[in-house]
Design goal:
heterodimer, A: 123 residues, alpha/beta, five-stranded mixed sheet, 5 helices, B: 320 residues, alpha+beta, CBS-domain, Heat Shock Protein 90, 2 domains, five-stranded antiparallel sheet, three-stranded mixed sheet, 12 helices, 10 strands
Chain lengths: 123, 320
């Protein structure tokens, strides 16, 4: 699935575009805990979250996440948008809830990371 | 895969193979297909091929491909005096199509081994959306190779100077020291130091996996300084040939029970910090998980010192 198809599946709106819409997304993940993102985030992953503060963008940058989707039609504050522009992160908004947004993407073929063991030290 | 001329270097062939396996058919097809209506005569097909300079085209009913007609069929109809026959009488009905979402490998397999010279491209409903021939394929792959070549060169130029510090500056033991000052409760700038550290390590051409691990650890450590200290702290990153040493030092309240804070899930963060997505008690656990060595020293009233080490094992900076 590429970014354009992901946005279509979510009836989403691109708020900040830093990536080619044809770019492939290897997998998706969802979290409201930033430590979880750091623990299971992987290179190129799309992150679905209900948080909109600038720290989400920082966390994404550290975890190698390129695209963040804000669920429930949350509009991030200007600081978040600005930081995303500077950090080369793309932002998308969807009116679906976290549950439904994840379900739609998974059903459309975007895989997750599979079972994750927190004590697993393999990176 | 025999579409590559013989004199390319191994590296270039690998690049082409990579492109073939990762590029979708949609991006190598010609989207404006000249399609033929089933009611056309072979004579009309002949005129169309002459006017449009094409040697074959799909025959399309609605949006579905029902056959394919080539210049060979036209020649045959001329030889046999069948120019007034309907195209549907002489076209090939055994059409191999390819999905726009499949990878270019599928095209290469069909074009090369099966002897097809053009493949109609269809979407998930089977509707015709484009056509791919050896020509459209080679043109778009060459274009993409050129693009990725230019990108690689630009990246190399950008990272060249920084990564050569270990060759250019000579001493018995050279290291690069980066120091950052982190303010308590300054959420507007929280993570800025980690972001700069990550970018610096990228410029130094450390392996992406190492950069990622360091990024995760230093970010968790930076957030600890922001959240838990009352006078901020300092992050020091020492980049050496064979490892990265990170230490964060603060003169904050200190930690009473070191065993307890290392328990995954243990947190003293207030509710409003948790609302921001932090303070889940996973910070130190995450740091320990991604690092090779983690050492935490603290006492109440005496501040806290966290030391983290990442080894590059056999991969030192100069063979990168």
């Amino acid at each position: 699935m590429n970014i354009r198809e992901m946005v279509e599946v979510l009836n989403g709106k691109i708020l900040v575009q830093n990536h080619n819409p044809d770019e492939e997304l290897p997998r998706g993940g969802a979290a409201d805990l930033m430590s979880d993102v750091l623990a299971f985030g992987s290179e190129g992953m799309v992150l679905l979250t209900g948080l909109t503060n600038p720290q989400v963008v920082r966390t994404a940058e550290m975890a190698g996440v390129n695209v963040i989707v804000f669920v429930r039609d949350k509009t991030p504050p200007p600081e978040t948008l600005e930081l995303a522009r500077d950090s080369c992160i793309s932002l998308v908004r969807t009116s679906y809830t976290m549950y439904e947004a994840c379900g739609r993407l998974y059903q459309a073929g975007l895989p997750g990371r599979g079972p994750v063991k927190i004590e697993n030290n393999s990176w | 895969m025999k579409i590559i001329p013989g004199d390319m270097s191994t590296q270039e062939i690998t690049k082409v193979q990579e492109l073939i396996y990762t590029t979708r058919v949609e991006s190598v097809m010609a989207p404006n297909v000249i399609a033929i209506d089933p009611s056309s005569s072979m004579g009309q097909v002949k005129d169309l091929m002459r006017d449009k300079h094409i040697s074959g085209a799909p025959v399309v009913k609605g949006k579905q491909v029902i056959g394919i007609v080539t210049i060979r069929d036209v020649i045959r109809s001329m030889e046999e005096g069948k120019l007034d026959f309907l195209v549907t009488d002489l076209m090939t009905t055994d059409v191999r199509t390819v999905s726009k979402d499949s990878m270019v490998t599928d095209v290469v397999k069909n074009l090369g081994q099966q002897g097809f010279s053009r493949l109609p491209v269809v979407d998930q409903n089977g509707d015709l959306v484009g056509i791919v021939t050896a020509g459209t394929l080679i043109r778009s792959l060459l274009k993409q190779m050129d693009k990725s070549f230019q990108r690689n060169e630009a990246e190399k130029l950008y990272t060249y100077r920084a990564s050569h510090i270990f060759q250019d500056i000579s001493s018995d033991d050279t290291s690069l020291l980066l120091r950052f000052f982190v303010n308590e409760r300054d959420f507007d700038n929280a993570g800025k130091a980690s972001s700069l550290i990550k970018r610096s390590l990228q410029r130094l051409m450390l392996r992406p996996q190492i950069v990622r691990r360091v990024g995760v650890a230093v970010y968790e450590a930076e957030m600890n300084l922001v959240i838990h200290t009352d006078i901020g702290g300092e992050i020091t990153v020492e980049v050496r040939k064979d490892r990265v040493n990170i230490s964060t030092v603060d003169h904050g309240p200190g930690i009473g029970d070191l065993k307890q804070v290392l328990q995954p899930g243990f947190s003293t963060a207030p509710e409003w910090i948790r609302d921001m997505g932090f303070g889940a008690g996973m910070g130190l656990a995450n740091i320990r998980r991604v690092s090779d060595v983690m050492k935490l020293t603290s006492a109440p009233g005496e501040g806290t010192r966290l030391e983290i080490v990442f080894n590059f094992q056999n991969e030192s900076l100069d063979n990168m």
